[in-house]
Amino acid sequence: QNQLRTAGSCPFAQWSERPRCVRLWCPHQRRCLFCERIQTCLKCRFHRVDGDSIAAVVEQVQPAVVFFDFDKTLCNTHHGEPPVPGKHRIQPDLLALLRSQLLQPTAVGTTRKLPNAVVVTRNAHKEAIETFLAAHGVRIPVYSVGKARGADKADVIVPLLLQRQMHHQEGHLARRQAGGLEVQMGAQGHNTLPNVPSTITGLFIDDSLDEHATGRLVSCTGLHRALFFMHSS
User: pTM for the full model?
Assistant: First the structure.
């Protein structure tokens, strides 16, 4: 095992699981996030959470935008079924997080409102989900990526996070200019603003490990991934 770990390889991976284990290998603890059930690694931006522990992760990460899966995460629906009031329930801790995100201000200086919370799901019942959330007093964008081969939640998450980052920089630039601060130009011609965070942090909450192992999400340095476990009632 030590030789495999030193080489950055999971000692427990079956042949079919190797690609996933490669993407979920933690070089900081020399352990597999998939096979060895690591609870958290801030450097890998990976966390295992349930309703009781999600608030602590949010407090630590301070995400500007949270991306929620729907089935078996935000709601106890399964296999893409439409949510039905009275039959299905929303996860109370995630609902509280969702409502707190909606209270957060948008980026300073931007003229367009950017969502602080988004649903990204493979459930095709987009309108039913929107209606279900509205019944709980929540109106947020819902993106359904479907289950077709090649469909990737990263196609929604990465552009939205990038858009949020661009508006974050634009907002600070507008505020600095309005305050009469001279904006310096970097070597590549980019604005360099003092005391402006270089990235906006996002948090993706999903119950599926396969979703968290998507290459583009793993490599997205501004995104933390939280593998969610919903306790049965």
Answer: 0.81
